[in-house]
Amino acid sequence: MARKETISRDAIMQAAFLILLEEGIGQVTARKLAARANCSTQPIFRVYRNMEEVMEELFETACSFFQDYCRKFPGQSETPFVNLGQAYITFAGEHKKVFEFIFLSPERFGKSMYDIINGSEGCISKEVQAALSHGCKDAENLFVKIWIYVHGAACMRFTGDYDLSEEETTQALRAAYYSFR
Questions:
Q1: Are residues 73 and 157 in the same domain?
Q2: Is 53 part of a structural domain of the chain?
Q3: Domain co-membership, 87 together with 122
Q4: Do both 14 and 103 map to the same domain?
Q5: Can you tell me the distance from the alpha carbon of 161 to that of 142, in angstroms, rounded to the nearest whole number?
Q6: What CATH number corresponds to the domain at position 33?
Q7: Burial category of 110 from C-beta neighbours within 10 Å (exposed 0-12, middle 13-18, buried 19 and up)
Q8: How confident is the model at residue 3 (pLDDT cuts 50, 70, 90)?
């Protein structure tokens, strides 16, 4: 008779995500995960084949966390790309370890930055459509230009080199939109 699984996959993933959030991806090890989940490493490896599988699922969990953050972000601008850019920059400062794991790591488990930001709800696609409806002729190219700007600002926020207020950031993003347009 097989031993009863005493810890769920969800509980293991929740523990892994808490380690990521508090300590960073480098600290998500089998031993730390077992300690955080209050179990030995054996139940983890009954549920997951290896730590690579844990990391891949943790990446999906982190991406969902980011997308949920963007969805709930209180956007206040009618200008395309501004609210999404503001959410991304703010996320980089508020959730540094998750931002680093998702956007600054070379391993994205087959997903591009575009895929991650667009998410299942089509965040980028909606912004591109909004830009088109505002008369932009090449909204996808505009997105590329703005996102280079936004990602740079987010990296500055991540490192602590960004000191613009939310209002100043909104103004800068609007100015970028109209300049690149």
A1: yes
A2: no
A3: yes
A4: no
A5: 25
A6: 1.10.10.60
A7: exposed
A8: low
Q: Contact, 108 vs 58, CB < 8 A? A: no
- Sorting pLDDT into bands at 50, 70 and 90, what band is 1? very low
Query: By C-alpha distance, which of 115, 137, 116, 129 is closest to 81?
Result: 129
What is the C-alpha radius of gyration for the chain, rounded to an integer number of angstroms? 19
Q: How far apart are CA 141 and CA 164, in angstroms?
A: 26
Q: 28 lies in a domain?
A: yes
Evaluate whether residue 57 is within a structural domain: no
Q: At what angle do helices 82-94 and 123-133 cross, to 10 degrees?
A: 150
**Residue 27, domain extent:** 1-48
* Contacts for 40-43: CB closer than 8 Å, 24+ residues apart: 43/5, 43/6, 43/7, 43/12
Same domain, 38 and 70: no
Tokens linked to 7: 């810890």
Determine contact, residues 41/97, Cβ cutoff 8 Å.
no
Please tell me the predicted confidence (pLDDT) of residue 117. Answer: 95
Question: What is the rounded average pLDDT of the residues 8-32?
Answer: 97
